[in-house]
Write a structure and sequence with these properties.
This protein is mostly helical and 636 residues long. The protein has 24 helices and two strands. One of its GO terms (biological process) is DNA-templated transcription.
Length: 636
């Protein structure tokens, strides 16, 4: 093989300028001189890769081959992560920060979308500064909290009530009566005489762990709202000491224990990857056959519980894998188990013999503690199909890769968009309406937020699947751009309204959603979305107001999540450049014009920065998802 044939092709910059590319790593001479990323475009798939990233992969290949040829490594190397291993790139990053990234982040993660924005000529002068800013990731500081024991009975009762009304209805994987039974045992209380699951034994280590984790999760919002003084991390630290004494593999108890840890990890740094927890959970579900309908009849409440456990694992998998752009742990085609039935546990437990699904009539509307969880799963399944359709790379067939361009045609892409939009519209109509909502998950504006969040996922996916540059002469493409702009705008407005009302707390997942929405608005405007508005001036003003509000929300997040601050700073830079470039001096009085878009100062009291599990460096740990992007589910 000749040297020429083994070299990488010319970079996109040299090809565009039609100049000779010296093809040197980590950058060719022209890209080094221009201080821009040296990007290689795969001629078959159209995917973009940094030349430096490919060079590092080649060097790693050489190192591994040499290691293999030298025989077995010295004892101990398999358990220690060397500095070289830490620097090894795990995914197709397209910036100069590969060395600081220590986990695979695929196409669905959003890296490609930010790269697309930064590849535009007007951002070239800022590209290096932006990438340097993103590379500056503050160290996550451990919580300065000491372990504490179970709280007094009055506080415990409030924590339990808060858990059932605020968390349990959205993630209903624990049986209510089992939790109550543990509570009665730990506090020496007598359960009601008609309790479906009576207390018959002494409290175990497992019981203690479960109740501590329930209190840790519940205390998160109470502590942030100033309703209690005990930091939730204290409960977790005490529960953590029990991990070696409780099951974490082999049965449904183990899965529930891991799910509790993962739920707490949505709010606080727990020192492990939520994605890895999700994989362990789903692996056990598959080994236990929970993803399939039972082959023989089992007790109805037990079957209902198994369904709830599996679908909670499904939600966690779609959340973590979607954010990181990784394949889902189980495909939709392999799932045959039904959703949980919309019924209370005590009704199922006392209904007598019969199949579980015979107890529930789908056409009959009824509100139970399962109602929100069921519609949440249904929404996740829609977004999962959207992700698979638009964000999963097509496999190249032996005949030459015909499958690669299945959704490159505007006709097929638009038809898929219409189909998924119809599914989301139907889903929104099925969400129960609560006259007096007790928590975020019973609020109509929360479900509006979730609807527009998935509309944003859908429209971005449709645009992402089309070849670049987009041809805005097509009416279908213009409709997609407009729908994408509207969805991003509504996401920011609805979240800002919920935040101002004190109805919603903050997580890294929400930060990612708002950051993504803000970038999407600037992207759509760069495609000329405002020029097609009846009143372009008014549309520009509204767009600037929305982007400014987005910046304020991200700044609010930045103060509470220092490790996410780099992204807020980058957005501020993009925002100011956009405003200065498109609106000029008309933006000088922005602060006076958007005075109502403030952050409720009451929300700033008593907050301690949380952090997701590991999620493999800042980009992934923040739940970030910025591309033609991946799935992002939301956990209050």
């Amino acid at each position: 093989m000749s040297t020429e044939s083994s070299q990488l092709p010319a970079c996109s910059k040299c090809r565009t300028r039609k100049v000779r590319c010296d093809r040197q790593a980590p950058k060719c001479g022209n890209c080094t001189k221009g201080n821009v990323a040296c990007i290689i475009v795969d001629a078959v798939t159209g995917e973009q890769y940094a030349r430096d990233f490919i060079h590092q992969l080649e060097q790693e290949e050489i190192r591994l081959k040499a290691r293999f040829e030298n025989g077995t490594s010295q004892a101990g190397t398999v358990t220690l992560r060397s500095e070289t291993t830490e620097r090894t790139p795990r995914g197709p990053l397209t910036g100069e920060t590969v060395a600081s990234h220590n986990g695979f982040v695929g196409d669905g993660s959003g890296l490609g979308f930010l790269h697309h924005i930064l590849s535009e000529d007007k951002w070239q002068q800022h590209r290096s500064r932006i990438l340097e800013q993103l590379a500056d990731r503050p160290r996550i500081v451990d919580q300065a909290v000491v372990p504490h024991e179970l709280p007094p009975l009055p506080e415990a009762e409030q924590l339990l009530e808060n858990y059932f009304t605020r968390f349990h209805i959205h993630h209903t994987f624990l049986l209510r009566q089992e939790v109550l039974g543990i509570f009665y045992k730990m506090y020496g209380q007598s359960p009601p005489s008609d309790a479906p699951i009576p207390v018959v034994d002494e409290a175990s280590v497992q019981d203690r762990f479960r109740l501590l984790m329930v209190f840790a999760i519940s205390a998160t919002t109470r502590y942030r709202n100033g309703l209690c003084t005990q930091h939730p991390y204290g409960y977790y630290l005490t529960a953590e000491t029990l991990l070696s004494k409780i099951p974490l593999i082999k049965n449904t108890d183990a899965i529930q224990n891991l799910l509790l840890v993962a739920r707490f990890g949505m709010y606080h740094h727990i020192g492990c990857s939520l994605w890895e927890i999700s994989q362990v959970c789903m692996r056990q579900c598959i080994e236990l056959g929970l993803h399939r309908s039972p082959s023989k009849a089992i007790e109805p409440l037990r079957e209902q519980h198994h369904r709830r456990i599996f679908w909670e694992c499904y939600v966690l998998d779609r959340y973590s894998s979607g954010i990181l752009g990784r394949p889902f742990a189980v495909s939709e085609e392999d799932i045959t188990v039904f959703l949980p039935v919309n019924a209370y546990d005590d009704h199922i437990a006392t209904a007598g013999p019969g199949t579980l699904d015979a107890m529930y009539q789908p056409g009959v509307a009824s509100f139970t503690e399962m109602s929100i969880f069921i519609v949440f799963i249904e929404q996740r399944r829609i977004s999962s199909r959207i992700h698979t359709t638009f964000y999963t790379p097509m496999c190249t067939g032996a005949s030459g890769g015909e499958n690669d361009v299945v959704f490159k045609s505007i006709g097929k892409t638009y038809a898929a968009y219409v189909r998924f939009k119809s599914e989301l519209d139907v889903w929104r109509l099925t969400v129960p309406a609560f006259t007096n909502p007790r928590s975020l998950y019973e609020r109509a504006d929360w479900h509006d937020f979730m609807y527009h969040k998935d509309m944003l996922l859908l429209t971005r996916g449709a645009l992402h699947s089309l070849p670049s540059p987009l041809s805005t002469s097509s009416s279908s493409i213009r409709q997609l751009i407009m729908a994408c702009h509207i969805a991003a705008t509504r996401v920011i407005q609805l979240y800002g309204d919920l935040m101002d009302k004190g109805a919603i707390t903050w997580t890294r997942s929400y930060f990612q959603v708002i950051f993504t929405a803000g970038l999407t608005i600037t992207y759509c405007i760069s495609l000329g979305v405002l020029r097609h508005s009846p009143d372009e001036t008014q549309s520009q003003t509204e767009a600037v107001d929305t982007i400014t509000r987005c910046g304020r929300i991200l700044s609010y997040f930045k103060d509470r999540m220092p490790d996410a601050g780099s992204f807020a700073v980058v957005f501020d830079l993009l925002k100011e450049e956009y405003i200065a470039g498109l609106l000029g001096h008309a933006s000088q009085n922005l602060d006076q014009n958007v005075g109502n878009d403030h952050i409720n100062p009451d929300l700033t009291q008593g907050l301690v920065p949380p952090s997701d599990g590991d999620f493999n460096s800042m980009w992934s740990s923040m739940g970030s998802d910025l591309n033609g992007f991946g799935v992002y589910t939301d956990f209050e």
